[in-house]
Write a structure and sequence with these properties.
Elements: H1 2-37, H2 44-65, H3 81-116, H4 128-151, H5 159-164
């Protein structure tokens, strides 16, 4: 189960990367159009906002599975290994609880948007799939957090990703 979840999260972080690349391209094109031709694309503001939210929510399950969140260890660094494990388990369960709560409301929001066939103002982009990413990411984070609480340690990170991270 952990291996399947880790692979799904790696796929999502690849999609987040593609979203970030597209976001960068649209920002650059908008700037070029604004300063070179005096008229930027009308839809880039909306699309860049949606791509940014997709980038964040597509990456959240990955950082949850591999415990790559920002951690403040001011107190837990003083704990013995047994108490640190208990603190990690409590944190994982808190993240799972929050993810279920947030995911429930994100799903409600996406379903309401679907019912209304909500679209962005200028470009007419359908909004419910973008909102659905929040619910899907929350569900994956909840599953990952529960599995981490039960397992105790994250799965081994892919070698290429592990080489890119800095430990402070």
């Amino acid at each position: 189960m952990v291996r399947i979840l880790a692979r799904a999260c790696r796929l999502l972080v690849m999609l987040a990367t593609i979203s970030g690349i597209a976001l960068t391209i649209f920002v650059a094109l908008s700037a070029i159009m604004r300063y070179a031709l005096g008229e930027p694309f009308s839809f880039t503001e909306e699309l860049v906002g949606l791509l940014f939210s997709a980038l964040v929510f597509l990456a959240l399950p990955y950082v949850t599975v591999y415990r790559r969140h920002i951690c403040i260890t001011l107190l837990t660094g003083l704990f013995s290994p047994a108490w640190r494990r208990i603190a990690d388990m409590a944190a994982d369960l808190f993240i799972a609880l929050y993810s279920v709560w947030f995911g429930y409301y994100a799903y409600q929001f996406a379903a309401f948007s679907f019912d209304l066939d909500s679209r962005s103002d200028l470009a007419g982009i359908t909004l419910w799939p973008w909102m659905g990413l929040m619910a899907a990411a929350s569900a994956l984070m909840a599953i990952a957090s529960v599995l981490l609480a039960l397992r105790g340690s994250p799965p081994p990170e892919p070698q290429a990703a592990a080489e890119l991270t800095d430990e402070y």
